[in-house]
Amino acid sequence: MSIWLRLKGTYNCTDSLPIRLDANKEAVTKGELQTPLFYAARNDATKALGVLIKAGCEYKEVRDYRQRTPLYVAAELGKWPTLGFYCWIAGYS
Predict the structure, then answer these.
(1) What are the angstrom distances between the C-alpha of 74 and each of 44, 46, 51, 64, 69?
(2) Contacts by 83-91 with C-beta closer than 8 Å and gap 24+?
(3) Would you list the domain boundaries of the chain?
(4) Burial class (CB in 10 A: 0-12, 13-18, 19+), 58
(5) Which CATH number is associated with domain 3-90?
(6) pTM for this prediction
(7) pLDDT tens digits along 60-82
(8) Residue 25: φ, ψ to 5°
């Protein structure tokens, strides 16, 4: 996985770490099979989620080794800002 995308997802970076055009946005970690969106969801990095989704990262159907989506991981960990963000992009208010 690109270190740039991992940092962006983990630390909610939106301006300081641009998404490189050659970065593999759907790269997965070894073992857990998690994309940068999982890192962002796990860390309540809603700004990074927005940037990653806008850059074309798959957020609806992507699953890890336990068949969880980033939304499921956020719910499992009680990440309310991330859950609210997912509801907002899905059109719920």
Answers:
(1) 8, 11, 17, 13, 9
(2) 84/46, 85/46, 85/49, 85/50, 86/59, 89/53, 89/59
(3) 3-90
(4) middle
(5) 1.25.40.20
(6) 0.74
(7) 889 999 999 999 999 999 999 99
(8) -70, -15
